[in-house]
Records
---
Amino acid sequence: MKKEIPYCDFATKNKKSVINKIRLYKHKGNFTWKGIKTEKYKTAGADWKGIIRKVLIGNHNESTKFHIRYFEIAPGGYSSFEKHKHEHVVIGIRGKGKVLCGKKNYQLNFLDTLYIAPDTPHQLSNPFQDPFGFLCIVNAKRDRPRILTPP
Amino acid sequence: MKKEIPYCDFATKNKKSVINKIRLYKHKGNFTWKGIKTEKYKTAGADWKGIIRKVLIGNHNESTKFHIRYFEIAPGGYSSFEKHKHEHVVIGIRGKGKVLCGKKNYQLNFLDTLYIAPDTPHQLSNPFQDPFGFLCIVNAKRDRPRILTPP
């Protein structure tokens, strides 16, 4: 039986051969895209709540050195409190949310762009009444997150 | 005298030491960000018109394997018709525009996401009445574009 790795989209697949072809993922409205499936944020763990994930770039055998994911946190939801060596770039595109990043709290609104440096403990959350959606861009090759005890 | 390289943001700077720190680039409205300057699309050339560039990630000594740029094409403007080995990911975020990509024409609306495969001739343009703004994500290490004769 294949063991699922309960970490976001870190190393969940065997490396496939590269197939680079032009692809257009049309936005169908409501933050869904043609040809892009909706997945769980992680396949296991009780340290997160109410998040879905859509991998825009990275699941179609592209050779890019980066992956682009859309995450959406429902009202009351939050991501794992974690750290890792790889960086995140987070760009708000739907609603607004909160980010605990290092020792500071930030609010992310539309198009606010946050660079989360390597090894920074961080957690995203949505204490608001509407969904909080954001792009998260990461290096294609990246280390496994380490889950931390919430503050 | 330092020679300027008239190619987008390809290799215009010497490599600097990496300085990774948390940074928040707040969206000030109207597709401008605090701490992000507005630059020309390219420093020379007559094969493009009416484009500005804002480098969100890539100009602050980050160690990311990718750069994130916001480009905006004014009504009537267009980018160079060119090709290169590196891929582009283009995500529409303001208005709408056209992309000639390979042999096809695409229209990009809000959040439409286009993967432009390596060595695909491509040109973005704005035949509409409002500004066309998009994110363009590329590998940090990339080859120099080759300008092509427009079709």
---
Amino acid sequence: MFFHSSKLQYEVKVDTPNPLFAKMLQQAIGGVEGEIRVAMQYFFQAMGARGPAKYRDMLIATATEELSHIEFLGHAVALNLEGAPTSMQDDAAKDPVVNAILGGMNPRHILSSGLSAMPVNSNGIPFDMSHVYATGNIGADMLANATAEAGGRVLAARLYNMTDDPGMKDLLSFLIARDTMHQQQWLAVIEELGGLEAALPIPNSVPEDHEAMAHSYVFLNTSLDKDAPEGRWTSGPSLDGRGEFSVAPAEPMGQAPSLGDAPPDSGAQTEQMAAPPKRRAPKKK
Amino acid sequence: MFFHSSKLQYEVKVDTPNPLFAKMLQQAIGGVEGEIRVAMQYFFQAMGARGPAKYRDMLIATATEELSHIEFLGHAVALNLEGAPTSMQDDAAKDPVVNAILGGMNPRHILSSGLSAMPVNSNGIPFDMSHVYATGNIGADMLANATAEAGGRVLAARLYNMTDDPGMKDLLSFLIARDTMHQQQWLAVIEELGGLEAALPIPNSVPEDHEAMAHSYVFLNTSLDKDAPEGRWTSGPSLDGRGEFSVAPAEPMGQAPSLGDAPPDSGAQTEQMAAPPKRRAPKKK
Amino acid sequence: MFFHSSKLQYEVKVDTPNPLFAKMLQQAIGGVEGEIRVAMQYFFQAMGARGPAKYRDMLIATATEELSHIEFLGHAVALNLEGAPTSMQDDAAKDPVVNAILGGMNPRHILSSGLSAMPVNSNGIPFDMSHVYATGNIGADMLANATAEAGGRVLAARLYNMTDDPGMKDLLSFLIARDTMHQQQWLAVIEELGGLEAALPIPNSVPEDHEAMAHSYVFLNTSLDKDAPEGRWTSGPSLDGRGEFSVAPAEPMGQAPSLGDAPPDSGAQTEQMAAPPKRRAPKKK
Amino acid sequence: MFFHSSKLQYEVKVDTPNPLFAKMLQQAIGGVEGEIRVAMQYFFQAMGARGPAKYRDMLIATATEELSHIEFLGHAVALNLEGAPTSMQDDAAKDPVVNAILGGMNPRHILSSGLSAMPVNSNGIPFDMSHVYATGNIGADMLANATAEAGGRVLAARLYNMTDDPGMKDLLSFLIARDTMHQQQWLAVIEELGGLEAALPIPNSVPEDHEAMAHSYVFLNTSLDKDAPEGRWTSGPSLDGRGEFSVAPAEPMGQAPSLGDAPPDSGAQTEQMAAPPKRRAPKKK
Amino acid sequence: MFFHSSKLQYEVKVDTPNPLFAKMLQQAIGGVEGEIRVAMQYFFQAMGARGPAKYRDMLIATATEELSHIEFLGHAVALNLEGAPTSMQDDAAKDPVVNAILGGMNPRHILSSGLSAMPVNSNGIPFDMSHVYATGNIGADMLANATAEAGGRVLAARLYNMTDDPGMKDLLSFLIARDTMHQQQWLAVIEELGGLEAALPIPNSVPEDHEAMAHSYVFLNTSLDKDAPEGRWTSGPSLDGRGEFSVAPAEPMGQAPSLGDAPPDSGAQTEQMAAPPKRRAPKKK
Amino acid sequence: MFFHSSKLQYEVKVDTPNPLFAKMLQQAIGGVEGEIRVAMQYFFQAMGARGPAKYRDMLIATATEELSHIEFLGHAVALNLEGAPTSMQDDAAKDPVVNAILGGMNPRHILSSGLSAMPVNSNGIPFDMSHVYATGNIGADMLANATAEAGGRVLAARLYNMTDDPGMKDLLSFLIARDTMHQQQWLAVIEELGGLEAALPIPNSVPEDHEAMAHSYVFLNTSLDKDAPEGRWTSGPSLDGRGEFSVAPAEPMGQAPSLGDAPPDSGAQTEQMAAPPKRRAPKKK
């Protein structure tokens, strides 16, 4: 069950409001790299967690923190929209600066939200929950979480570079730090469970006779004019200790696919049917 | 540039067509764990790859392989739809088996595609490209790819368990194997680049003064009634060698947010405004 | 800032797990009538609230409660999926009951989530945040919230009627009660602000000279063969006390629209252009 | 059945075309606050209307009017796009005004529609029909409609403030007026059916033994550091006359959720299983 | 401007209601082959029509007809849902027929709409307006319309084959007929404008020096192991009379793409940068 | 099965990078008129092709080519983003040119992709696979393909007009040429199968007794105040040779729809029910 405190997790100051930066910040709220995504992803993973209870606890604890991140970023968006222009001059030449701001803002910050944050990304696209990855497999979920936090920290670093506002830089430096920790903690779970060798291949519970092992450690080169790129993945032991990497040229092992003719009454054209219904006679005129 | 061979990468046999399994298989084509996603993800990562060229080559080589996976899975869906019922009895009691199949199938396999594969998941939802994660950061991208392959292998393992069809089991065992390799190869890139310690935190190019380091290795416990779950992430050195893990109770460090009154002419109710426009006089009747 | 307690807001018991009911329950989590929607809607409204602070407090308090509703419903879904069939018989006739269940379930409950809740509706469609209505106008927002709770209570009532499971009925009776309260509280805000007469028309801050008042209280009958349906809206004083209702037949007051010819080089066909580029001469053969 | 007249419902004049305002106007066509939404919402509510026929008639009459609103707004968009720039200078400095317009326009107004209206919002996002709320419950539907018209009138008021064009102001003043009427008429249905006391809680047909009435009129305070915000909703009779409002601190009444171990062959990691399949022996090298 | 008559365009009778067929019929309302799509597509094409006015008139006339098709199909869905089961038995074995129907229905027909039509397809996916194709080019639009009607007639034919209900067959035979006419009328526009030779290539207004004509009539064979499939497109005059068809093997004409190193401060990993920021020293412990 | 060559199909040169044009070009990658769409559409049509094998071969050959178009356009986007501004000045007046570029760019080109192509359109909306039209009917599919290529060529022509960059003009002239060929080849299939008369109405396999032929060639005029627009579609023989075109005023042929009262326990309001549950007594106070 959730509770709320009236203060923000971190202080939000905006020295110079900037409606274009408000649009950019939306990516950190409603983008695939954003806070709604991680809050909901950890929440749903927690609800589906099976096995040792502490991972469930860890997930819900951090889900709760991410909700607080949405909250302070939402406040940051609203503060950046303070004083934004809300009307336009018909002749853009009159005030190109104002018109450039209006053209660059998310118009729905004016039209739909009344100058406050929305659950959308920097293109104004609402977040959709298909990005909540929660598989029931703790290995897959931890990788998904580390991925989300890596994307999130890349985004925060780019936002940090984009602004000169001291308050915003301070807030983003906190976000960068928390993304560091969250990357760490999800990968630490894998380390605690024996590290990558023990975890891989995910799921590590698949019986080996369900797997065509001859194909499990071969880098297939589909290039027609280049050798396979050599690296850790082309020779030497596999990361899971079960095999040796090798390289092979990609080659068809299957048949040429064919579905044959269309059955009658299938909605196809008669020309696709072996025994089509008799063609109607053209009407005499 | 791409080329095509007329044969499939792997042989597809369906001993007993099953239209419900056709619906399930769609998850491996058009689901977030599916082949369209990885094909396009590796393709767009390759197009945006900067730095050592061999990673680009690796990405495009495997993107190309994934296109071939779409192709053989698409054929598997069509073969599972052979002979599927395409009409219903008005009285479901007449033939409950046929009606249960019709109710369980994806109706668009009949209505929209003429008994062949579609770029949709097992709920019939079309794949959308927001799931193509390509950040321009090779660390984030490699984690995203390992995540995708982990989800894909979990899915393939579940599909394997779901069917008794020998041909389908054979095909899925190949898919399980290739997902093993692909998990390996993306994580091998990270190993080649120095391993997790060197790669973390992603992006590892963020200057430390952009990061509020005091918050970078602290597990925040937002629980009101449980201690922080202890583990690799609560004490000891961080995975990136830059710090020591610790635990702290989560506490607000910021202000109580307030946006004040709504400006006049902002589309708010007058009651939200400090100095609202004068209230109209109610019409006398 | 948010915090969490390890116990659910309400006890969840499932006497007889039913994977089909798990699918149905998803509507209450990820449907437009569901808990993710209201949690996020109240949260974003709170973040954008201007004017008296107590409405912000009220919004965030209830947003927090709705997060707890997601949590117990998520647990209810998982408990309903306990023991669900995860493999199929190729010949549906062999066990029509199992096959009907498999056909009726959300396949992603098996394939994607490992038998736990997902942020999707009963069709498996992920919730998308475009349904978070937060306008910055407290009147519009309160109506939107009452609407959401009305839809939610309709849904809960239908789910209640659909199941015979005592634990589920108990949980749903709690949800019905909370939806009652939430309907009440949002409409009570409007009452507190003077009631509908004072609140309407929303926004009540629009100056009357921005409104073509002659058209403000006229029911337009667009029917060609029926009189306007008579009722409270066709005569008598308007609900906002500003006018009198009347009825009028709908009639065009505007011009016939015309855009004229297409400009050259606009990508139109030449036939749409007044002075098309000279037609190429067909190639001699 | 529908019919059409060749003239618009209201005259559309654009004194000074403004392609940026064309983008803004799209919100009134294809936004959630827009005309496609209300046209389709009233249409589908009419098709599902049960009970007194006059509400069906009223719904379809106004649905028909809203189609005409799409039409005149579509014309307004096209007229605002007359003469819009369709090519760019490579060096933005050459003509910053033209480049700011091109950057601020919806690019698809040039690229996809040939300078005419599209069924998209001001971010260019196509309207999707998930926003058509039609529950089969007249109370819920009337609230949903009043909500839609409130959002619509807020939007129209903001668009009015945004432009200086006399023709556009005139058109928007008509839209503001019609939104006034439509707000009125939907709420008048509730008044005609006995007012809020009779209508609430929606659905008012739920037997009281389906509802855990002890929880129906209690404002739950989830805040850890603030008292419940006091108002009409914290004491006094409930709006439906069935109870008395009160306040209580939110508290968990349920269990700590637990799903136990993952079953074998469920696609989880072995570490999540009580009796995992025997771990494979690492390959000797 | 639109008007409405209280009667349906065509009579709707359902002899034996079938909730599964109701789900199927939704494809004809809210599917990409359905009536919402064509109604809106012709409507938006009409609003953007430039050039001869009669095409605009034709578009709006048929758009209006399609609205009436939505209406009678919506009624057909509701009638097929009459008497549908709305509760389930916990033990599916108790009544497999009822449970198969409940599993096969669109659950939202019960939960969300109260047994009436929704603007969704047969998977329950809401229609989205991205499928409204209106380019401003009459040739492209007419092809798009013929395509939509072809898909629509294929769908109607499949629905006809799926049901035994006489009323439904009668309704579908009318739909099949109207789709015939609509296919005809859009292609007749192309014929009236000179036929395919004059219309192609669309847009026919592109100056020939904007086109690399050497590549305009060559079938590129990308197959590695099959000859190009021979047909009307591999030799002989092109359909537009401007060239001769030929065949060529596909070959790269471009460079190997390369983006070089990532710039500093771009959010990439240091390993992707030519001159990365100096690596931090690992913390001493 | 697919293979890859390391060189692009066509050379990509960008003389003057332009991040706004990069945004525009995205329409040709991820728009409905773009290359992902046609690549996937031809691919899925090929996988579902029944009847003569050469059409399958043709489809897969061109699908493969379209993948190469994605590739060179993706490179063109990245090259246009070289040197794009990635930080903003708080005071827009300081450098209006830079700020207008930042406001006009797709912000995710900076924030999400690290200055490279994304699978999105010019509004930043990810492509979704619902636009892959593959019906199993070769006539419908060929029309759909010609439509896609017509939209694509319209788009390419508009992009050509929009830029002054010689490299981009050269690339687009190649795209215009290939779109010409692809329009030709899909329509050539119809010609090869007997031309439009033989192909229409699609599907041409529908028995005539499934069609209400009296309605098949009548243009219905739904206009209340204009005569039917006269043309090829109002008189003379139909394009399929089966009938004669005529004109008729649209008239209702059906009943006034009615669904009667709502059943008890259906979640409706009591006022919608013939015999509602007894109304609760208001609580005494």
